[in-house]
Amino acid sequence: MSTPLTRQLPEVAALFNPAFGAFVLAHCVAAHMAASPSLPLPFPSSFLVLPLVLPPDTRSALPRDVRTPLSGWLADNPVLRASFPRRAVSLTEYTRTAERFGIRHGAFVVRSGGLVVESQPRRPNESVHGVELVECTRKAALVGRWLASMNPATAFTLLGLRP
What we know:
mainly alpha
């Protein structure tokens, strides 16, 4: 996904690398499956993950664990909730690209309306892979557990989107 912005800024190009997005999504799918073993991550829900995890302001505001429900977190972060629909729309094509990459390279597979991992994705090491990658995968796992606890339509509604 090459745009004038990604051609200008190597940091942006690295962040929007399809392999990176697929890796982050795989961590979300794995956590979702751990919380709900019989259910794949619903395909529409996958479009909520990267807009919650990639923007640094949203990622840093996400709670440490699922004891804070999504609805409570959104109530405590009205500015992030208000900006989410725009972020989700702007990251839709990147999410599709990351999903295609992940499916093509075996990070996850499509099964009966959702995404599943057939093996756990590797946990990144902060000293090797950097703090940002570790933080993105941790927060993606949190989002996966959140999404496992609710109907996709509820998540979309809470985030100000139509499923």
